[in-house]
Amino acid sequence: MIYWELLLGFLKIGCFAFGGAYSAIPLLRDAVLSYGWLSDEALTDMIAVSESTPGPIIVNLATYVGSSQAGLAGAALATTAVVLPSFFVILLVTSLLRRALKNKYIQAVLRGVKPCMVGMILATGVYMTFHRCFPMSHGWPADIRTLLITAGLAAAMLLYRYFRKRKLSPILLIVLAAFLGIAIY
Amino acid sequence: MREKRAVWAELFFSFMKIGLFTFGGGYAMLPVIREACVEQKGWLTDDEMMDVAVIAESTPGPIAINCATYVGYKLAGMAGAVIATLGIVLPSFMIIYGLSMFLDSVMEHPLVIKAFLGIKAAVGLLILDAGLAMLKKMPRKKQPRGIAACAFAAMLLANIFSLRVSSIALMLLSALVGLTVFIAGGAPDGKGGVQQ
Question: Distance between CA A32 and CA A64 in Å, rounded?
Answer without folding.
Answer: 12
